[in-house]
């Protein structure tokens, strides 16, 4: 099984500790490519996500953070080719189109993930980058998601990666 970590916007360096902690806790490689931070279009990020998916193979789990999490959700809702991943574990996912957040990345009306795809949504209440109310909006849109609210940890999940690794581990069995 392969693991793909999709970093946040401008966060390739900032998110390295998250991917490294997952590698350490899970004892497996976690791929983390550099997504095109100079081109924040969904098309550019989808192209890299597709390239990574094809390189890693069909037995894949996706972990996404912030903007990267939202791109994984958007891609899985339409335009995904090949076998579905074993699941998604998403951290601090923005709900685009809500107050002040660009609608160009919004999930379309009637959005649904493929049936049976496990989804874990993690968010820290003290996140000062993506407000925790984004989690509530996503949970309402995706009623099958397992929702994990952490009291502390901020946007970079300080002290919370054990819980994230536990959910990623559930996708292995």
Describe this structure in words.
With 173 residues, the chain is α/β, with parallel strands linked by helices. It has one domain: Rossmann fold (3-Layer(aba) Sandwich), CATH 3.40.50.1820. Helices cover 33% and strands 16% of the residues. It has 5 helices and 5 strands, in the order βααβαββαβα. Strands 1-2-3-4-5 form a 5-stranded parallel β-sheet, sandwiched between helices. Helix 2 crosses helix 3. It is globular. The N and C termini lie close together (10 Å). The mean pLDDT is 93.
Strand-helix topology:
Elements: E1 2-6, H1 16-26, H2 42-56, E2 60-65, H3 67-76, E3 87-91, E4 119-124, H4 133-141, E5 146-150, H5 161-172
Parallel strand pairs: 1-2, 2-3, 3-4, 4-5
Q: What is the general shape?
A: globular
Number of helices: 5
The N- and C-terminal alpha carbons lie at a distance of: 10 Å
Provide the number of structural domains.
Answer: 1
| Strand proportion | 15-25%
The CATH superfamily bears the name: Alpha/Beta hydrolase fold, catalytic domain
| CATH architecture type | 3-Layer(aba) Sandwich
Uncertain runs are: none
Mean pLDDT: 93
CATH class: Alpha Beta
Largest sheet: 5 strands, parallel
Pfam families: Abhydrolase_6
Keywords: Hydrolase
Organism: Arthrobacter pullicola
InterPro entries: AB_hydrolase_1, AB_hydrolase_fold
Structure, briefly:
By secondary structure, this protein is α/β, with parallel strands linked by helices.
From the structure above, extract its key features.
173 residues; alpha/beta; Rossmann fold
């Amino acid at each position: 099984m392969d693991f793909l970590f999709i970093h946040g916007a401008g966060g390739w360096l900032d998110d390295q500790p998250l991917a490294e902690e997952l590698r350490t806790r899970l004892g497996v490689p976690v791929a983390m490519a550099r997504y095109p931070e100079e081109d924040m279009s969904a098309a550019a990020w989808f192209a890299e996500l597709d390239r990574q998916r094809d390189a890693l193979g069909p037995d894949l789990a996706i972990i996404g953070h912030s903007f990267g999490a939202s791109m994984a959700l958007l891609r899985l809702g339409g335009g995904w080719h090949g076998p579905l991943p074993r699941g998604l574990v998403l951290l601090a996912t923005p709900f685009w189109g809500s107050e002040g957040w660009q609608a160009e990345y919004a999930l379309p009306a009637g959005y649904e993930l493929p049936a049976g795809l496990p989804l874990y949504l993690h968010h820290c209440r003290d996140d000062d980058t993506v407000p925790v109310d984004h989690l509530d909006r996503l949970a309402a849109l995706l009623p099958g998601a397992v929702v994990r609210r952490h009291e502390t940890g901020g946007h970079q999940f300080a002290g919370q990666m054990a819980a994230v690794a536990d959910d990623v581990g559930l996708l292995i069995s």
